[in-house]
Amino acid sequence: MRQVASVLHLDLDAFFAAVEQRDKPSLRGKPVVVGGVGGRGVVSTASYEARTYGVRSAMSTREARSRCPHAAFLTGRFHAYHATSRAVMAALREVSPLVEPLSLDEAFVDLAAADLPDLEVETVRAVGERLRARVHEVTGGLTASVGIGTSKFIAKVASDLDKPDGLVVVPPGGEQQLLRPMHVTIIPGVGPATAERLRRAGIHTVADLESVTLDELVRLLGRAHGGGLHALARARDDRAVEPERETKSVSVEGTYDTDLTDPRLLAGLLTRQAGQVAERLRKHGLSGRTVTIKVRLHDFTTLNRSATLGSPTDHAPTIGRVARTLLAELDTSDGVRLLGVGVSGLADWVQEDLFGTEEDDEDPEPEVEVPSSRRSAWAPGMDVVHADLGRGWVWGSGRGVVTVRFETAETPAGPVRSFDVTDPDLAAWLPDEEVNDG
């Protein structure tokens, strides 16, 4: 823990939903839910207007619709989220060279590496205010909540205290006073299982946790976990802000509208996903030793199986062969709703297999008709362009008809028109860089 409040955590408020409201004027000030829109979908982000009805991240879309049936339910537009995130991260690097992105919508910033006259509370508070204004400017109106403290832990806790569009600075020496009344789940690593174990021991708040000795916590939770909670309950956190976060795995997965039972189809899916993983590995100059498959069964049971190779590989047939072997060990006869392949244990080199089979010598997998993920051709929220009416977004589709609202972030709320799904004048729209990459 530092002697000054020099770690800043920035969290964009309701990020995916906020981007949708920015780019869709007719949705501003209204409930918006981003995530899977099908019967098995899950909420990724809910706008604050939707949260007033009890809609939360990770909630099933079915429940979200029952709580807030008048919300706009949209699939994600990741090109828009990535572009906005890049603008935000660039703004953070204007403040300090040490920026550690955690995800598209949050990052740590080390203010000790910034060119500041001092690190007094009022100085860093002013930096936080300027940064929030800068984020609002570069994102076209999005808001961010900022926390500043003597450690990553404290800064992240602080950024959540005054949402949305808030700023909280925890002065040095005020950390434990802040933490003590809070529930133990505020501490990273205290999930439902750990929280229940602590509850049974009569530990509910951080103050309760602080009163427990290290030996007691080690007996209760194990040496590593117990020791970590013992330190964090006392606000001890010496983790540095690390601008380069190492990629730990590369994976691809898909969720399907109907349960899949055909072994030949499942093998085909794994083969295709293995090819996509291998392509991503090669694109980034990486290889990996451990191949993992993820299988979610019809009853929502999720299984993971892994195998480790003798040396790193980026060879699609090798990854696919290992993945299919792992799948064959599982009973999938009652149906699979999610399937994925990943490679971890990454390295930046590949050991050629001198005695292995060459790609051209391997028996090709039979062609299969791969079902699409739950996203339809005209998914709600996706960007489209019409030859005469210009750009808009899909309001909804079904029974051979797609309905579009024609508006963008730069226009007022626009008109709604319906078209045949095969109308040649209507097409999906992507920014030029996405088209070139695809």
UniProtKB/TrEMBL annotation:
<comment type="function">
    <text>Poorly processive, error-prone DNA polymerase involved in untargeted mutagenesis. Copies undamaged DNA at stalled replication forks, which arise in vivo from mismatched or misaligned primer ends. These misaligned primers can be extended by PolIV. Exhibits no 3'-5' exonuclease (proofreading) activity. May be involved in translesional synthesis, in conjunction with the beta clamp from PolIII.</text>
</comment>
<dbReference type="GO" id="GO:0003887">
    <property type="term" value="F:DNA-directed DNA polymerase activity"/>
</dbReference>
<keyword id="KW-0963">Cytoplasm</keyword>
<dbReference type="GO" id="GO:0042276">
    <property type="term" value="P:error-prone translesion synthesis"/>
</dbReference>
<comment type="subunit">
    <text>Monomer.</text>
</comment>
<keyword id="KW-0238">DNA-binding</keyword>
<keyword id="KW-0515">Mutator protein</keyword>
<dbReference type="InterPro" id="IPR043128">
    <property type="entry name" value="Rev_trsase/Diguanyl_cyclase"/>
</dbReference>
<dbReference type="InterPro" id="IPR036775">
    <property type="entry name" value="DNA_pol_Y-fam_lit_finger_sf"/>
</dbReference>
<protein>
    <recommendedName>
        <fullName>DNA polymerase IV</fullName>
        <ecNumber>2.7.7.7</ecNumber>
    </recommendedName>
</protein>
<feature type="active site">
    <location>
        <position position="106"/>
    </location>
</feature>
<feature type="binding site">
    <location>
        <position position="11"/>
    </location>
    <ligand>
        <name>Mg(2+)</name>
    </ligand>
</feature>
<dbReference type="InterPro" id="IPR050116">
    <property type="entry name" value="DNA_polymerase-Y"/>
</dbReference>
<dbReference type="InterPro" id="IPR022880">
    <property type="entry name" value="DNApol_IV"/>
</dbReference>
<keyword id="KW-0548">Nucleotidyltransferase</keyword>
<keyword id="KW-0808">Transferase</keyword>
<keyword id="KW-0239">DNA-directed DNA polymerase</keyword>
<feature type="site" description="Substrate discrimination">
    <location>
        <position position="16"/>
    </location>
</feature>
<dbReference type="GO" id="GO:0006261">
    <property type="term" value="P:DNA-templated DNA replication"/>
</dbReference>
<comment type="similarity">
    <text>Belongs to the DNA polymerase type-Y family.</text>
</comment>
<dbReference type="GO" id="GO:0003684">
    <property type="term" value="F:damaged DNA binding"/>
</dbReference>
<keyword id="KW-0460">Magnesium</keyword>
<keyword id="KW-0479">Metal-binding</keyword>
<feature type="domain" description="UmuC">
    <location>
        <begin position="7"/>
        <end position="191"/>
    </location>
</feature>
<dbReference type="GO" id="GO:0006281">
    <property type="term" value="P:DNA repair"/>
</dbReference>
<dbReference type="GO" id="GO:0009432">
    <property type="term" value="P:SOS response"/>
</dbReference>
<dbReference type="InterPro" id="IPR043502">
    <property type="entry name" value="DNA/RNA_pol_sf"/>
</dbReference>
<dbReference type="InterPro" id="IPR053848">
    <property type="entry name" value="IMS_HHH_1"/>
</dbReference>
<dbReference type="Pfam" id="PF00817">
    <property type="entry name" value="IMS"/>
</dbReference>
<feature type="binding site">
    <location>
        <position position="105"/>
    </location>
    <ligand>
        <name>Mg(2+)</name>
    </ligand>
</feature>
<dbReference type="GO" id="GO:0000287">
    <property type="term" value="F:magnesium ion binding"/>
</dbReference>
<keyword id="KW-0227">DNA damage</keyword>
<dbReference type="InterPro" id="IPR017961">
    <property type="entry name" value="DNA_pol_Y-fam_little_finger"/>
</dbReference>
<dbReference type="InterPro" id="IPR001126">
    <property type="entry name" value="UmuC"/>
</dbReference>
<keyword id="KW-0235">DNA replication</keyword>
<dbReference type="GO" id="GO:0005829">
    <property type="term" value="C:cytosol"/>
</dbReference>
<dbReference type="Pfam" id="PF21999">
    <property type="entry name" value="IMS_HHH_1"/>
</dbReference>
<dbReference type="Pfam" id="PF11799">
    <property type="entry name" value="IMS_C"/>
</dbReference>
<keyword id="KW-0234">DNA repair</keyword>
